[in-house]
Model the fold of this input.
Amino acid sequence: MTCYDKKLRQTGPEQLNDLIVVPLHSRVNGWSLPLHSFQLITLLLYSYLAIVGFGIYIPLLPNEWKFVAYAMTGLIFVHHLITHLVAITIDPADQNILAKKNYSKPMPSFDRSKCKHVIQNQHCYLCEADVGPKTKHCSTCNKCIADFDHHCNWLNNCVGSRNYWFFFNAIASAAVGILLLLVVMIYVFIQYLVNPTQLRTSPQFESVSGNGTWLAFLPIAPVETTAAGILTVATLTMVLGSASFLVLAHLLFFHLYLLSKKMNTYEYMTRHRPKQCTISREMSIEATSDATHTMEPLQDLSEVRKPNEAASSTRSGMVVN
Done:
């Protein structure tokens, strides 16, 4: 009977037409404009650490440790770069959205002031497609994300089932790579105070007059500098590296915890908010999540039914479930 047709069993939100505001195109991935400032900061920090680590401090290590450091740190940095770029490049959309592949078609953006919810009975009224049970509609990306975890500003992309493991590997490799660089710079500090000649084993130092002159960017393009310059850059790098490592380590252990509990970031945040929390409280997930990413969820209609919640404060930039 036609009354059992799935489309007839799906009830759209009231005043569905009011959802349509300024037409926008869905973002394909993290390279879609506009780029986020956090994304640029991440790439600049990676470049800085790579140049300083491989250009200044690893070349100062004794020969027996130098090539080990080059190999280990280089492998970690390359692994991080690949996984980071893949996590940015992958389109994390739901499979049914990918099947449509029509990103050139303008889509309505979500306006919470006119309607609270977009997904009902696993059907997204903005994407006009059936979606998976853990799919959420991200208003930043303006599309449904498969097994939505969170929207990451550092990647400028959503993290879902299609790119989660690349995201996880990027975090782990970044933490390990920065830790290795910190170990190298701590060694350089200690060795400079104890026996600085151990840091001048490269053949290029033989042509340098006096022990007060140091060389950077060995062995390809030696540049003369001073010990004060070497130590100043090392201090700055250690401060940046330590702060970055603490943030990454916290994030890494958080996701290890989530994996052990078999849940994602969005589920963790919604389960641990107070029961009396309304939609406006849910919107504060972005502020309470870790510094590396923001949550942008919009709840399912089935989650919030009470009339008093319909009057809760509104805010744009959240995900539609």
In short: The chain is about 45% helix and 10% strand.
